[in-house]
């Protein structure tokens, strides 16, 4: 009799945990060891012949890490996953796997800042890479940017700050036609609400510090994809660059994965309520959130996502920096911080860092405004979140 396929929420609680090996422990142990010993010359020699699957040294494989990786791969619909010490370590490994010297990358414009710097500043100088940034809202943006040496299309859907979408299936089809690899940062939607690998994307990366971790207590990243690609990344970028995750952090990820489906539903519910409130508030000029029917790519989102996370942005009507600061400083529940995806609600404004680096004229040319706010809607009671924002708006009166 064929075994019944389990719901992903059930798999996240049990898949990959061989409890009989751990005295029936309902929570797996933490293997906090640096190396593994063998009984004989032949045993360790055979392990080296299969390094990608053997436990030799914890810079490579570790049983605690393996459990979390298998759960994430199952969740995303990938054959294999590799956990890293940070999201940027995962992104760097995935990009380096796809690129060769003198190659060309096509990337969406509103890319996560450190990833943008990796491509445009670091690798452009170190590997003579060329980078073309495109809006990405139409597949023709990518098609027109293809060169003979294009090796990678880097996606982030929804993208940072403005949350614009790319048609993942169409871009994947185009890339395969030209023999180009595709990579997506899927941290915003998580594999709960979006499965890029099923749409033809080659590699998927996440900052596990965000929703996958979900408790603001770890920094980690993951690459997910087919076995051949992940084995290659393991043998090269993973082992050689040394961006391995600590067993304790992997154990915390396993803990977090058990509640991920429930947490994402709660983030979505709160965020839709907050976004709707903001959309109808006279102090707000614009809201960027794919979960609003008024969002200009709402239908594309419904086609390739099954839900929405808690990260969104909005623009205050005022352009007076002192007024913006009053709004910002009058909040209590929304804490001021740079990250997102945790249990707590956060607020940040790009102007905080940009005005240190740019003249007012340069800042204006970015298309951003002092009143652009990014909020991560957490798991607090939504009435308290809305009341807190209203409290901030009263400072503008």
Protein architecture, described:
Helices cover 41% and strands 15% of the residues. It is α/β, with parallel strands linked by helices. It folds into two domains: 250 residues, Type I PLP-dependent aspartate aminotransferase-like (Major domain) (Aspartate Aminotransferase, domain 2), CATH 3.40.640; 135 residues, Aspartate Aminotransferase, domain 1 (Alpha-Beta Complex), CATH 3.90.1150. A seven-stranded mixed β-sheet has the order 1-7-6-5-4-2-3, with helices on both faces. Strands 8-9-12-11-10 form a five-stranded mixed β-sheet, covered by helices on one side. It is built from 16 helices and twelve strands.
Question: Which descriptors apply to this entry?
Answer:
seven-stranded mixed β-sheet; Aspartate Aminotransferase, domain 2; 2 domains; 397 residues; alpha/beta
Please state the overall shape, judged from the principal axes of the Cα atoms. globular
CATH class call of the largest domain: Alpha Beta
Sketch the major β-sheet.
7 strands, mixed
Q: Could you spell the SSE succession in H and E letters?
A: HHHEHEHEHEHEHEEHHHEHEHEEHHEH
Q: Percent helix among the residues?
A: 40-55%
According to CATH, the homologous superfamily of the largest domain is Type I PLP-dependent aspartate aminotransferase-like (Major domain)
Counting DSSP E segments of at least 2 residues, the number of strands comes to 12
Strand content: 5-15%
Report the span from N to C terminus. 68 Å
């Amino acid at each position: 009799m064929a075994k019944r396929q389990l719901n992903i929420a059930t798999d996240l609680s049990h898949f990959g945990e061989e409890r009989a090996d751990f005295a029936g422990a309902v929570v797996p142990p933490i293997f906090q060891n640096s190396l593994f010993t063998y009984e004989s010359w032949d045993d360790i020699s055979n392990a080296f012949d299969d390094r990608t699957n053997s436990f030799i040294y914890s810079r490579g494989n570790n049983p605690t890490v393996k459990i979390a990786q298998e759960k994430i791969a199952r969740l995303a619909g990938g054959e294999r996953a590799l956990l890293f010490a940070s999201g940027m370590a995962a992104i760097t490994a995935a990009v380096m796997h796809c690129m060769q010297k003198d190659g060309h990358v096509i990337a969406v414009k509103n890319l996560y800042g450190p990833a943008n710097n990796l491509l445009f500043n670091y690798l452009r100088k170190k590997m003579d890479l060329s980078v073309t940034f495109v809006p990405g809202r139409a597949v023709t943006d990518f098609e027109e940017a293809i060169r003979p040496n294009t090796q990678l299309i880097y996606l982030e859907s929804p993208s940072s700050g403005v949350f614009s979408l790319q048609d993942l299936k169409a871009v994947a089809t185009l890339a395969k036609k030209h023999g180009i690899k595709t990579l997506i940062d899927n941290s915003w939607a998580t594999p709960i609400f979006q499965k890029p690998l099923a749409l033809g994307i080659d590699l998927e990366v996440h900052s596990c510090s965000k929703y996958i971790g979900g408790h603001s207590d770890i920094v980690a990243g993951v690459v997910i994809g087919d076995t051949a690609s992940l084995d290659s990344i393991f043998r090269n970028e993973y082992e050689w660059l040394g961006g391995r995750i600590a067993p304790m952090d992997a154990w915390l990820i396993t803990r977090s994965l058990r509640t991920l489906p429930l947490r994402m539903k709660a983030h979505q519910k709160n965020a839709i309520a907050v976004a709707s409130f903001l959309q109808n508030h006279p102090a707000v000029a614009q809201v960027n959130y794919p979960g609003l029917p008024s969002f200009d790519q709402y239908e594309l989102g419904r086609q390739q996502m099954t839900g929405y996370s808690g990260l969104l942005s909005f623009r205050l009507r005022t352009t007076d920096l002192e007024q913006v600061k009053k709004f910002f400083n009058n909040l209590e529940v929304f804490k001021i911080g740079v990250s997102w995806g945790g249990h707590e609600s956060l607020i940040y404004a790009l102007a905080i860092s940009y005005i240190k680096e740019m003249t007012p004229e340069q800042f204006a040319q970015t298309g951003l405004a002092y009143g652009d706010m990014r909020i991560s809607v957490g798991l607090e009671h939504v009435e308290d979140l809305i009341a807190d924002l209203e409290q901030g708006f009263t400072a503008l009166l």
